[in-house]
Specification:
There is one protein chain. The protein has 331 residues and is an alpha/beta fold. 36% of the residues lie in helices and 16% in strands. The protein is built from 13 helices and 12 strands. The strands form 3 sheets. Strands 7, 8, 9, 10, 11 and 12 form a 6-stranded mixed sheet that branches. Strands 4-3-5-6 form a 4-stranded parallel sheet. Strand 3, helix 3 and strand 4 form a beta-alpha-beta unit. Helix 1 packs antiparallel against helix 8, helix 7 packs antiparallel against helix 8 and helix 8 packs parallel to helix 13. It is globular.
C-alpha cells in the first residue's frame, strides 16, 4: 500500500520543546534518580514505572513503528509478526538491528521471555493468550515485564474503539518513556491530518459504504470498533453498524452475500494483507456482485489490514485513503 501524507510528514518531523501532557510528572533523569513514579491505566490495569523501560518489544509492526517514532530503537530487544506488514520505508534502517522474535504470529512464551524484555506493547489482548502458547499477562507480571495493550484493542473497548484511542496510547507511551515532546509531535500530526479530512469533506453528501473482508469464498462484514470509526471519520455512511444484531458481540460477522446485495452500498472498502490478497478480493467481489452499485461503478477501495489494527498510525492513514476515494473532488 502507498505512503500517505501523515507518514510522509512524520519522516520529516523535527522534535521541538512542547508542554508535557498525560500522566508523566518528571523527566527520565529525575525518575532514575528516585523521582515520582509514572502510573498509567491500561485495559483496567494500573501500570507503574519508577524508571523508563530499557528493554522493549513491539509485538506487531504497528506497535514497533510507534516505538521507533518515539526514538526508542536503542531500547528495543525484539520485534514480532514482522511478515504481517512492512514497516514504513523511513524506519527500516532503524529497525534493522532489532532482533526478530517471530514472523507470522506472536512469539511463543519462551521466545518472548528469552529476550528479557521489561516492556512489551501489543495491538490486542490476543498476543497474551496462554492457550495459544503465548505468555499471558500474569506470567509477564511474574517475570517483571510490563505489558501494554493498545487502548482500542482492550477487550472491553474492542467494540467501541475509535481512532482517537491512538492518541491516548501515544501520550501514555510518551509519559512512560520520558518522551512527551515526541509523543506530542505525533499527536499533533495525527490530529491535523484528521482535521484536514474533516474540513475537506464538510457539507458533502456521504456515500453509503460497506466494509468487508474476504478470505477465499468467505465474506465477512465489519460493523463496530475502530474499523467502523475509520469509515465514519472518512465521511462514509456505514450500512452496517453496532446497532445491528450481527455485531452485538463482535465487531465482525460472517455475511450472507444476499445481505450485502440488499444493502447495495455505493462504495466497498476491504482490508488486504498483500497485493495477491487484494487481487483475489477484487476478483471475488466482481464475480459475486456484478450488479452491486459499488462494483458497477468500480468504487472498490482496498486498505492495508495492518492500518485497521488498534494502536497504529495506520488508522489515520486509512481515514485519509478512504476519504480520498469517497470524495475525489475534495482532494
Amino acid at each position: 500500500m502507498r505512503s500517505t501524507p501523515l507518514r510522509l510528514s512524520l519522516a520529516a518531523v523535527t522534535v521541538v520543546t512542547l508542554a508535557g501532557c498525560g500522566t508523566s510528572v518528571s523527566d527520565p533523569d529525575d525518575r532514575s534518580a528516585g523521582g515520582p513514579t509514572v502510573t498509567v491505566t491500561n485495559c483496567g490495569r494500573e501500570l507503574h514505572f519508577d524508571t523508563p523501560p530499557e528493554a522493549v518489544v513491539g509485538l506487531s509492526p504497528s506497535q514497533t513503528e510507534l516505538l521507533l517514532r518515539l526514538g526508542l530503537a536503542d531500547r528495543m530487544v525484539g520485534q514480532a509478526q514482522t511478515s504481517t506488514a512492512p514497516l514504513p520505508d523511513d524506519l527500516r534502517q532503524s529497525a534493522a538491528d532489532v532482533p526478530v522474535l517471530s514472523e507470522d504470529a506472536p512469539p511463543d512464551r519462551e521466545t518472548l521471555l528469552d529476550a528479557e524484555p521489561d516492556f512489551v506493547f501489543a495491538p490486542t489482548a490476543y498476543e497474551f493468550t496462554a492457550e495459544q502458547g503465548f505468555a499471558d499477562l500474569a506470567q509477564l507480571d511474574e517475570a517483571g515485564v510490563a505489558a501494554y495493550i493498545a487502548t482500542g484493542g482492550c477487550a472491553e473497548r474492542r467494540m467501541t474503539g475509535t481512532v482517537d484511542d491512538l492518541f491516548t496510547d501515544l501520550r501514555n507511551l510518551g509519559d512512560i518513556f520520558g518522551e512527551p515532546e515526541r509523543a506530542a509531535e505525533l499527536v499533533d500530526a495525527g490530529e491535523a491530518a484528521l482535521t484536514d479530512v474533516a474540513d475537506r469533506i464538510e457539507g458533502l453528501d456521504a456515500p453509503t459504504v460497506a466494509q468487508v473482508y474476504v478470505e477465499g469464498e468467505t465474506l465477512s462484514a465489519i460493523g463496530a470498533g475502530i474499523e467502523y470509526d475509520v469509515i465514519a471519520r472518512a465521511g462514509g455512511d456505514n450500512v452496517f453498524g453496532p446497532e445491528d444484531p450481527a455485531f452485538a458481540d463482535f465487531f465482525a460477522a460472517q455475511l450472507n452475500p444476499e445481505a450485502l446485495a440488499e444493502a447495495d452500498p455505493e462504495v466497498l472498502v476491504f482490508s488486504v494483507h498483500d497485493a495477491d490478497h487484494e487481487a483475489a478480493t477484487v476478483e471475488y467481489l466482481r464475480a459475486t456482485f456484478p450488479d452491486l452499485a459499488a462494483v458497477r461503478d468500480d468504487r472498490l477501495v482496498g486498505v492495508s489490514a495492518s492500518d485497521m489494527f488498534p494502536g497504529t498510525l495506520g488508522n489515520i492513514d486509512a481515514v485519509t485513503r478512504i476519504a480520498e476515494a469517497l470524495y475525489p473532488q475534495a482532494f
